[in-house]
Amino acid sequence: GEDFKPFTPEKAKEIVLSLQQPAVFCNMVGDWPAQHWNVKYLSAMLDGKTIQFRLGLKTVDLVPQFETSCSYVEATLEEFLAWSCGQPSCLSGPFSCYDYSKYWAYADYKYIARIFEDKPEIFQDVRWSDFGFPGRSGKESTLWIGSEGANTPCHLDSYGCNLVLQVQGRKRWHLFPPGDTSFLYPTRIPYEESSVFSKVNIANPDLKRFPEFRNSTAHVVTLSPGQVLLVPRHWWHYVESIDPVTVSINSWIELDADHEARVEEAITRMLVCAVKSAENPSDGDLWLNPTEVEATSHEINLQYLNKAVSAYLKCQETSVPGQACSSSTGAKQRTNASCKRKRREVGCEPESGTLLTQECDFPTPKAEEMQKIPFGPHLIQVLPQSHKTSVIGTVAVESAGGDLLHENEGEHFRKLHCKRKRLLTSNDCETAAHQMDSDCGPCTSQTALFTNDLLDCLVNPRVISLVAQLLLERMR
Fold first, then answer.
1. 3/130 Cα distance (integer angstroms)
2. 382: number of Cβ within 10 Å
3. Would you tell me which of 177, 178, 204, 253 could form a disulfide with 362, CB atoms 3.0–4.6 Å apart?
4. Domain boundaries, the chain
């Protein structure tokens, strides 16, 4: 029945905080009212309120389609549904410049507490208490609504772990372990406080520019309605909607393990803002992600750094002797919710996020440790591609919550994106809205260096980790 749950809240929390590989929970949310949050229901609840949609081309280039190269419109969910269904009413609406066959739309990172601020009773439809986090509801969660092809560029979240409930439609997740960081060519441009992006377009990798990507190991899963994906701390992910309309709800679980990394993120902010702010604005380099309102001053960035260092030292004082507060194992969940992309959200004070610590901080769990995890029909491990069948296609795992697909995606992506590549844009308002940054393409000279090349070295995770350690040693 709907009330049956295979794991107690205590056991679910233990799994969430200890498992360092992605996994899917099944049969845990059957009685959640949020299971009925499809787009039609949400449209009725919003009652004509507009939200922002990000629009991108379905054609896939060798360069990731970062948010700085997307277009944005304000629209109601009713208008979004009409557009995604190809209704004639869209000829004069906010989506009128965007042909559905050529574009996708994504209302991403929408904080439920903000868009439903006049309907706080709806927060209780989301019950993360079933996963061992009492008091965590829709108020601490984020809503994602997209059309087919809507995607998030490959990135890692700088802090915490992530629980994602699929409500409507399916999404395909490509996840990479923290140890693959160097193979994914991390960059902080475009800069966002709590995200480290990959230079590689996972859907169509440029192996000439990024040959080490061949050494990465993707863990691929298709998430279906009713399933909850655990994205462990610092796992890279590229996510794409594969059905006409998708709805997801997630919550970032902040961890005490993030304290040292907050110091690293504060250092990164200081360096990126100082170097990029010194450039000529006329260069047209869109280095700030749209989620960042403006480049913060050196004085404010120094305040961030001091707050992060103070929080780290306070954590060290209260931690168990001999056990570092930033240890990735056995970390305790903090009571306050993570506020990713907090600078855009009302009521979220800007505070330092985190950056990836050394890659070796997250070893693959030992065999005996993995045996203690109760994998089975209710908790399905997301396996690396190399461990799957060599037959091109899909391997379905049956569960009451729907089919969970561990897939060999290489052939799927090749066929899908070759087809998309043939789509051409002819509308003037389409082509004008999607000019890529001049420095995103292949370098015209093998010897010319640019500011972003220097920054990629200065704020490389390994460099920042060393700087943070030296800085913290001075404070002890």
1. 11
2. 21
3. 178
4. 1-476
